[in-house]
Specification:
This protein is an alpha/beta fold. The chain is 34% helix and 15% strand.
Length: 283
Amino acid sequence: MKTIRLLYPDYVSGGLETYYFGANLLQYILPANLNQPLIKVDVLPPDGKEKAVTNGIWAEEEVLAGIQNAQKKIEEAKPDRIITIGGNCMVSLAPFDYLHGLYKNIGIIWIDAHPDVSTINNGYPNAHAMVLGSLLGYGAEQLSSKMKNKKFKSDEILYVGLQGLHDYQEKFLKDVGVKYKIQDKEFVSDEEIKNFISRFDHILIHFDIDVLDEHFFHSTYFANPELVGDGSGGGKMKMDKLAEVLNVITSNSDVVGFTISEYLPFDEHKLHKMLSGIKLFTE
C-alpha cells in the first residue's frame, strides 16, 4: 500500500492567509515517516491583493486551479492512501474523489463543527464551506464538475462534532437526505461510529480543527476575536475526546484517506511576520 502526504496549503477557499502558513507548519507537526513521501500541490503564496467574487465564489480561478493541480499530483503519484495536509476544508475534494474511484464501498466521517454544504446562493462566497455539498453533487456546480468519479451518497456521510446549523444548511441536509445530529450536548457515541463503519470496506476521515473547543485549543478560527465568518460558532470537542474518536475509527476500519484542515496558528504567524521585518533574518 502506497501512502502519500499531500501538502495542499489552499488559503483562497477560506479567504485567510494564515491557512497557507498553517499548512506549511503542519507538515512538521505530523509524526515523521520516511515511507510516506510528501507531494506538494502548487499554490501561489499570499500576495496581499484583494480577490474578486466570480460566479458566487471568492477567487474562483485560484480555487479551481488548486483542485486541478491537486488532481494532477495525485494521479501522477498513484497512491493507495492519502493523508492531506491543509489548508482549508476544500482540500478534501480532490483526494476524496480520487479515492472514491479506487474504492467503491467507502464512507466519509466528517469531524467538523460545520456541515460544509453551502452553495453559491447562500451569501457566503468562500468555497471551503461548499466542499461536502460538492462531493455529494449538490454544491457549487463549478466544484462538482471537477470531480472525475461518481458523487457520494447521502447515507455515506457521518458527522462527528456538528454544532448548530443555519436554516439553509438544515434545509439542504434534509432535502438531500443526510442524517445528522447536533452535538452541542453530547457527541455521537462510539457505538454509532462503529455501526456506521461496519457498513463500509473503507473509510475517509475529514478532520477540521475547528471542531475543537477554542477555549482549550487556540489555533482555530474561533479563537481569533477579530474574525466573524458566516456567523457560525466553534466546536465543543476537547483533545482527549478527539483522540478517542480517531482511535475508534482507525481501530475498526480501513482508513484510506485522512484530511487535516483549518489549522490556524495565529500567534506563530504573527511572530513569523514580525521576524520577517528584521533585516538580520532576511539580508
